Protein 1
Amino acid sequence: MNRKYNVFLVSDSTGETLDRIFLALKAQFENFNNSLHHFSFVRTDAQITTLLEKCNKVENPIVLYTLVESSITSFLTQETERYKIPCFGVLDYLIPKFETVLNRKANRKPSGQHILNKEYYRKIAAMQFSIEHDDGQKLETILESDIIILGISRTSKTPTTIYLANRGYKAANIPMIPNQRISEDVLKNKKKTIVGLIADPERLVDIRKNRLNTLSEEKHTSYVDLDKIKEELEESKKIFKLNNIPIIDVTRKSVEETAASIIKIHEIKNS
């Protein structure tokens, strides 16, 4: 029988970092049956006590935490040890090691990664830019982008653009629509990072059908016709190859993986 675990993600901030770390950890164990419990902005002993009460009400609890304040961390580790609850600190190993290497003390400041500095405001500006330049909008200023993504419908252009914006890149995307030409100013531009996205045609049929179903629209159109989609893909590939635009097949890639590939292309181009 596959035992079910109750995983408690405990953070003194938003918990976003811990979420990502747990996803990476979980991916290493097939059939890891678990329920997640989020405890964010934990900064007092009283909150730790509430957490422990929850842990003691479920089977197979496991605690993962990113806490930097020493007294809170000590209280949590002591109490989980007392109740024999597995408890792991994600930063407990790294912070002391970095203190040694850097020869300085960590400030142990909760939410330290969320300070309102220049990088933060750069990300906000990039996000605003990408939203305004989504799906071929505001083409008159599209060359202000750091990255321009091209592709036919449902090749993950928008989510990839938004993810890149969250990384601080001004990204825009332009849909490749049959019988509509993309400006030569974009296609021939040597200064900008321009990337073309493609996907398996059968996969695109399924995604487009789901899209139409969501919109309660007619499914029997050329939009979901396999042969038409193959034609769209072949035409987009021809344009990419003619203009030396790097191509990424997103069929088996997550948005994060696609974005990572684009960032690598951008870094190489600008190195």
Protein 2
Amino acid sequence: MGNILEVHEVTKKYRSKHALHKVSFNLSAGKITGLLGSNGSGKSTLMKIIAGLTQPTSGRVSVIGGSVGTESKAVVSFMPDKPLTESWMSVSDALKFQTDFYPDFDQTKASRMLEFMKLRAQDKVKDLSKGMNERLQLTLALSRRASLYLLDEPIGGVDPVARTKIL
């Protein structure tokens, strides 16, 4: 299998501060890879660039051989460090939103994951604990039939017992 992701000399500056400076690496398909670094080291910024949510100051990123853009967004599932759901939503509203927004959203997989994550469709997002909300966000991201999954702090708020089951 070839590279699913290529990052070549990516730099991102915010005014005079470098969030990223000439970062380069390749990832082949079928691998699970973690980004490790201290707070403020650019991990989230890099994921946002790969997901096409922000542009690098310089350098290039390609996903499955193509530039980051409309086509790559269709094959990249990104779970940011802040929830994508609104507090007024129920879990089923969040699933419907994903179904409407992403043609590759797999409702059957989402239902299985909700059961595994011990989430109910009628639960309100505003009533979920931090860990349960992260379980919902993880369900939303992993229920897409994407080629590349980017998970930013996916289980930071999940308790250690549930974390072991999820992993």
